[in-house]
Amino acid sequence: MNMIELRRLKAFVTVIEEGNITRAAERLFIQQPPLTRLLQGLEQQLGVQLLQRLPRGVRPTEAGNVLFDEARTLLARAEKLSEAVRRAARGEQGHIAVGFTSSAALHPFVPNLLRRYREILPGIATVLEEAGSGELMDALIDQRLDAAFVRSPLRDIPGLSIEPVLQENMLVALPPGHPLALADPSPLPLTALANEAFILYRRPAGQGLYDAILAACHRAGFSPHIVQEAPRLPATLSLVAAGLGLSIVPASMRRLGGDGIVYRAISDADELCAPLYLALRHNQQSPIVSRFRDLVTEALGEEQRLAAQ
């Protein structure tokens, strides 16, 4: 049997609902003869009589009643399907995979943005992944991720664009009882750390921050004495708390708490900050990703306006 056209089913359902071909034609904004031909074509296609013609209208046969119930369900599903497709085309339905580094996830901007995105676009299913910057970039290239918040610029990667989002201060994380933790809480110059043992996160996991710390120390006239490297920033803080050394971390890392870790600000003169970037694939046509990027821009604009007040 050939597939039944939806327009024939819609015509049939409308006729049954109105009980009159003339009124059904008016509701469908067509003339009566074309409507009659649609009904006749449907009966011919199915090989059964669907309507009984009455002096003042029509009513369904037993076969017509069965078709009426099934057709209404099918038309409702078709309408939902059409609306779902239109919503997807507008970037309002579908899914998006977003990655972030562990330190990016701790900055209030990222969780606040994801929460707002879910509230504005509840039809979008969001898949989240935490990894190092390099791993996130690989996932973007392999199309396992659609967007990622990273700390490293990692520019000139074919197929990817890196857009700056914001910058935050960095802090010195000190173990309990360290002399610098007990001193004046005013901002520390990096030169005060020249003879200290440093704990940093491995460069492949945090190239941008690792390189920024080393460059700032070199500008201050020394090379940091790195005694331990950790795979992730949270692990770095655990080693600091254990007294193995100090570290320099984004200010948002203090949200993790820690057993007595003391944080000291760094002198502005050292120009050390932690950037946050949004990484995307070049020429990405997905309306869902476009909406996400637009929301990042809007949220950042709101933060800047609030900061200026």
From TrEMBL:
GO MF: DNA binding; DNA-binding transcription factor activity
Provide one Gene Ontology cellular component.
protein-DNA complex
Keywords, A to Z, come to: DNA-binding, Repressor, Transcription, Transcription regulation
Q: Does the keyword Lipid biosynthesis apply?
A: no
Record-linked Pfam families: HTH_1 (PF00126), LysR_substrate (PF03466)
Entry annotated with the keyword DNA-binding = yes
Per its UniProt record, what InterPro entries does this chain match? BudR_PBP2, LysR_HTH_N, LysR_subst-bd, WH-like_DNA-bd_sf, WH_DNA-bd_sf
Q: Where is the HTH lysR-type domain?
A: 4-61
Q: PANTHER family attached here?
A: SMALL NEUTRAL PROTEASE REGULATORY PROTEIN (PTHR30346:SF30), TRANSCRIPTIONAL DUAL REGULATOR HCAR-RELATED (PTHR30346)
Q: Which family does it belong to?
A: Belongs to the LysR transcriptional regulatory family.
Please report the name of this protein according to its UniProt entry. Answer: LysR substrate binding domain protein
Taxon lineage: Bacteria, Pseudomonadati, Pseudomonadota, Gammaproteobacteria, Enterobacterales
